[in-house]
């Protein structure tokens, strides 16, 4: 796709050079503008002091600069996790989460406004899908949080609202811009993309040979249970999904993560753990167990602590690499989509 289809902040440096040259500007201006947008994180052209006033005015008129505006912020009293609600230029809103770990700061971003996947235990999907986010709108969640906190982000997780692979082209461009040495230059190895299992897109992503981590929202170890929790399972069976995972592993050499939300009395038995081991073992997949976030619109509940430990123990005895996700910010609207829903309801 040529650069003319994107807003200025979604363009690569080369596309920006071509565009400015076409508009009669000197190509070196592209590096200056790119640097202001992606390294200095400027929110408007007025901040770009090494450009002439005339050029800044022309750019502002022809190429509005995407910059997200914070609408709300909640901070956890337990672990300092901050949840942000940002307004997009068209008035839609998205959520992002900033988490502080010993190894650095991690930001979880959204890839769509709303979601059309319909997973039963997820608040993001309750109001349906509005639209895809542009690469610039994904980037600026990270840029805005960096501006607000004054701290560098070292890890990015595309696991907020939306199905990233349902916004494939924008996602790919976002990853390329985020990891570009002329921008924030975050290592691809520090980027995780989550999917509920869109098989063709998973294979397409494998062929890009990126060094990112792909996390599969699996949440069940049988087709029957998965279909109950995730409508996407009606389209692709587990064997098709595992084949796509094997292809991804083969093409990239990157071990996958299986995300598994433990729902009390639904998918948390030792039989489930046994079947999950059989899926993970051939792929050397890492399993991330997630105590499900209860949402008031559904009657799913979290598994008991003892059940979570027993489930984890069974996986470990089967030689599976497993962690239980730390519940960051559980005293604020933790589950994705809840802060946005509250604002929409208001």
Automatic annotation (TrEMBL):
Co-factor requirement: [4Fe-4S] cluster
Positions annotated to bind [4Fe-4S] cluster: 115, 119, 122
Anything else known: Reaction proceeds by a ping-pong mechanism involving intermediate methylation of a conserved cysteine residue.
Tagged with keyword Iron: yes
Protein name: Probable dual-specificity RNA methyltransferase RlmN
Family note: Belongs to the radical SAM superfamily. RlmN family.
Location within or outside the cell: Cytoplasm
GO CC annotation, single: cytoplasm
Cross-referenced Pfam families: Radical_SAM, RlmN_N
CDD domains cross-referenced by the UniProt entry: Radical_SAM
InterPro entries: Aldolase_TIM, Methyltransferase_A, RlmN_N, RNA_MTrfase_RlmN, rRNA_lsu_MTrfase_RlmN/Cfr, rSAM, rSAM_sf
Gene that this sequence comes from: rlmN
Source organism, top-level taxon: Bacteria
Gene3D superfamilies: 1.10.150.530, Aldolase class I
Binding-site list for S-adenosyl-L-methionine: 162-163, 194, 217-219, 293
Domain Radical SAM core: 101-331
SUPFAM superfamilies to which the protein is assigned, alphabetical: Radical SAM enzymes (SSF102114)
Free-text function comment from the UniProt entry: Specifically methylates position 2 of adenine 2503 in 23S rRNA and position 2 of adenine 37 in tRNAs.
Catalytic residues identified in the record: 95 (proton acceptor), 336 (s-methylcysteine intermediate)
Keywords of the record: 4Fe-4S, Cytoplasm, Disulfide bond, Iron, Iron-sulfur, Metal-binding, Methyltransferase, rRNA processing, S-adenosyl-L-methionine, Transferase, tRNA processing
Source organism (scientific name): Candidatus Eisenbergiella merdipullorum
GO function term, MF aspect, one: rRNA binding
The reaction(s) this protein catalyses: adenosine(37) in tRNA + 2 reduced [2Fe-2S]-[ferredoxin] + 2 S-adenosyl-L-methionine = 2-methyladenosine(37) in tRNA + 5'-deoxyadenosine + L-methionine + 2 oxidized [2Fe-2S]-[ferredoxin] + S-adenosyl-L-homocysteine; adenosine(2503) in 23S rRNA + 2 reduced [2Fe-2S]-[ferredoxin] + 2 S-adenosyl-L-methionine = 2-methyladenosine(2503) in 23S rRNA + 5'-deoxyadenosine + L-methionine + 2 oxidized [2Fe-2S]-[ferredoxin] + S-adenosyl-L-homocysteine
């Amino acid at each position: 796709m040529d650069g003319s289809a994107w807003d200025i902040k979604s363009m690569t440096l080369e596309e920006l050079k071509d565009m400015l040259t076409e508009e009669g500007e000197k190509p070196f201006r592209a590096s200056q503008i790119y640097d202001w947008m992606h390294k200095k994180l400027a929110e408007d052209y007025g901040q770009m002091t090494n450009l002439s006033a005339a050029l800044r005015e022309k750019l502002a008129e022809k190429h509005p600069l995407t910059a997200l505006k914070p609408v709300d912020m909640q901070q956890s009293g337990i672990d300092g996790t901050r949840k942000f609600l940002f307004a997009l230029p068209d008035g839609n809103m998205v959520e992002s989460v900033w988490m502080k770990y010993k190894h650095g700061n991690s930001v979880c971003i959204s890839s769509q406004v709303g979601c059309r996947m319909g997973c039963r235990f997820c608040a993001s999907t309750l109001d349906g899908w509005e639209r895809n986010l542009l690469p610039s709108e994904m980037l600026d969640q990270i840029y805005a949080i960096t501006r607000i906190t004054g701290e560098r982000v070292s890890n990015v997780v595309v696991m907020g609202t939306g199905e990233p692979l349902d916004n494939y082209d924008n996602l790919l461009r976002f990853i390329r811009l985020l990891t570009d040495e002329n921008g924030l230059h975050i290592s691809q190895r520090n980027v995780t993309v989550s999917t509920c299992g869109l098989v063709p897109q998973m294979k397409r992503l494998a062929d890009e040979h990126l060094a990112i981590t792909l996390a599969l929202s699996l949440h069940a170890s049988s087709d029957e249970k998965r279909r109950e929790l995730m409508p996407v399972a009606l389209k692709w069976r587990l064997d098709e999904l595992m084949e796509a995972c094997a292809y991804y592993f083969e093409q990239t050499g990157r071990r996958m993560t299986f995300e598994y939300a433990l729902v009390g009395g639904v998918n948390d038995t030792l039989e489930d753990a046994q079947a999950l081991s059989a899926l993970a073992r051939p792929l050397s997949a890492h399993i991330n167990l997630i105590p499900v976030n209860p949402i008031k619109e559904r009657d799913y509940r979290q598994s008991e602590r003892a059940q979570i430990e027993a489930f984890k123990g069974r996986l470990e005895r089967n030689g599976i690499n497993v962690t239980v996700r730390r519940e960051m910010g559980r005293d604020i609207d933790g589950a994705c989509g809840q802060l946005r829903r509250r604002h929409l309801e208001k």
